[in-house]
Design goal:
The chain is of the alpha+beta class and about 160 residues long. It has five helices and six strands; from the N terminus they run αβββααβββαα.
């Protein structure tokens, strides 16, 4: 009985933690989205979808990489910052699809330009924050962890 309760508690905690994952977006200084669904992991049709939430803007405005809040020399309170971005971007959604065996990832924002990448990356590939590559690598690693390990995109666990 004790083992069953422990198993149920661990399973519930695991689900809660998985549901709270970030959806990595294509800017290191910007905000991440919230992961809504993830299906087909390690397959030829892996898909994850995300959206922006108040919590995403709250984290961004507290961190304030753009120096917009009073705490960082700007004019806005954190609450005003969150309200502004919620109004401007609060309906944004995201979708990434991957073909793990081919090493491809396509990222589709609701606004902006879709991006595609094929792994493994060339040896001289720009993987800096300015390139927008780190979040795409993270997306591929979430959808295709086995291939990501083979391409040395993530640490072995």
């Amino acid at each position: 009985m004790r083992t069953t309760l422990l198993s149920i508690a661990l399973f519930t905690f695991t689900l809660s933690a998985a549901q709270a994952n970030d959806f990595p977006l294509a800017s290191c200084a910007g905000w991440n989205g919230t992961l809504v669904s993830k299906t087909g992991i390690d397959s030829n049709a892996a898909v994850m979808e995300g959206k922006l939430t108040r919590a995403d803007f709250q984290e961004y405005c507290k961190r304030d990489p753009g120096d917009e809040t009073r705490a960082h020399g700007g004019k806005l309170t954190v609450k005003q910052c969150v309200a502004m971005y919620t109004k401007e971007n609060g309906k944004d959604t995201f979708r990434s699809t991957a073909n793990c065996s081919e090493g491809t990832l396509s990222f589709e924002p609701s606004a902006g330009t879709p991006q595609s990448v094929t792994f493994p990356l060339p040896e001289n590939a720009d993987v800096s924050c300015a390139s927008g590559m780190p979040p795409l690598i993270e997306q591929f690693s979430l959808l295709c962890p086995q291939a990501a390990r083979e391409f040395h995109l993530m640490d072995d666990e």
